[in-house]
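Private note to self, pasted from the team thread so I don't lose it. Backbone tokens:
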């Protein structure tokens, strides 16, 4: 399973006003992108990023993340594409 927020984190986030939720989500995504720049071999992180972008309806960014993940991890390309396909990323 790909790690994600805990149940407590999800409950805390749902109690925030919409604007604060959006800021928190963007902060988490930015943090994840920073981690991936420092460690592009973290395939589970790429998949989390792809899933996050798709959840937000950011299909172009999800597709770009998938391409970056494959470029950084060519030996894991099939797994990354399979996950992206399950998430309905366009252009897989």
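Design output:
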């Amino acid at each position: 399973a790909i790690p994600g927020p805990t149940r407590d984190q999800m409950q805390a986030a749902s109690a925030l006003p919409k604007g604060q939720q959006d800021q928190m989500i963007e902060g988490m995504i930015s943090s994840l992108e920073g981690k991936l720049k420092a460690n592009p071999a973290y395939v589970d992180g790429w998949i989390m990023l792809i899933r996050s972008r798709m959840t937000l309806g950011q299909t172009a960014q999800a597709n770009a993340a998938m391409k970056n993940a494959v470029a950084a991890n060519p030996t894991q390309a099939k797994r990354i594409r399979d996950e992206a396909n399950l998430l309905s990323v366009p252009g897989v």
